[in-house]
Amino acid sequence: MTVAIFDLDNTLIAGDSDHSWGEFLVERELVDADHYRRANDQFYADYQRGELDIHAYQRFVLTQVAAFSSAQRAALLADFMQTKIAPLMLPKARELLASHRAQGHYLLIITATNSFITAPIAKALGVDQLIATEPEVIDGQFSGEIIDPPCYQAGKVARWQGFMADQKRQGETCYFYSDSINDLPLLAEVDHPIAVDPCPQLSAAAEQRGWPIISLR
Question: Could you say which of 53, 87, 121 is where a domain stops?
Answer without folding.
Answer: 87
